[in-house]
Amino acid sequence: MRITEAARRLGMSPRMLRYREALGLLPEIRNQGAHRRFGPEELSAVAQSVELEKRFDISPAELAFALRTLSEPAVAQAVRDLGLRIGRLQAPRRALDFEKEKALRLLQRPQASRPGSD
């Protein structure tokens, strides 16, 4: 179906549907250069994105960026670095750090009196 009919079925304007397409929130067109035709897969993808936007109170642009962080490792790393810097994320603990903390806890325990230690 054409964009006008798809937009009507989804309860949005053709302009909003084109905006979502520009953000990358629709499946890719298989035949590049062809006009997009909307089928069940495209309608379902748009409906799912609208549901996520409502559930998490986010915009289509925010959802598109979230998808970008999941699909582009460099973007994911940059966002992770920011999260660490501003304290929204904690650095993963390394095994050596865990062992060091365990040893410090053991050293801080009060020693039980041993026989003959007087």
Q: Which properties best describe this structure?
A:
6 helices; DNA-bd_dom_put_sf; Multidrug-efflux Transporter Regulator, Chain: A, Domain 2; 0% strand; DNA-binding; 118 residues; MerR-type_HTH_dom; mainly alpha
Q: Would you spell out the secondary-structure blueprint of this structure?
A:
Layout (H helix, E strand, L loop, with lengths): L2 H8 L3 H10 L16 H17 L3 H12 L1 H13 L9 H14 L10
Helix pairs in contact: 1-2, 4-5
Question: What does the model show?
Answer:
The protein has helices at 3-10, 14-23, 40-56, 60-71, 73-85, 95-108. Helices cover 63% and strands 0% of the residues. The longest helix is centred in the middle third of the chain and has 17 residues, at 40-56. The protein folds into 2 domains: 1-58, Multidrug-efflux Transporter Regulator, Chain: A, Domain 2, CATH 1.10.1660.10; 72-107, no CATH class.
Largest sheet properties: none
Number of helices: 6
Structural class by secondary-structure content? mainly alpha
CATH architecture of the largest domain: Orthogonal Bundle
Number of strands: 0
Average pLDDT score: 88
Sum up the overall morphology in one term: elongated
Determine Rg (CA atoms, Å): 26 Å
- Helix fraction by DSSP (H/I, runs of at least 4): 55-70%
Distance between the termini: 91 Å
The figure for the number of domains is 2
Give the low-confidence spans. Answer: none
CATH class of the largest domain: Mainly Alpha
Order of helices and strands: HHHHHH
User: Which percent band covers the strand fraction?
Assistant: under 5%
CATH topology of the largest domain: Multidrug-efflux Transporter Regulator, Chain: A, Domain 2
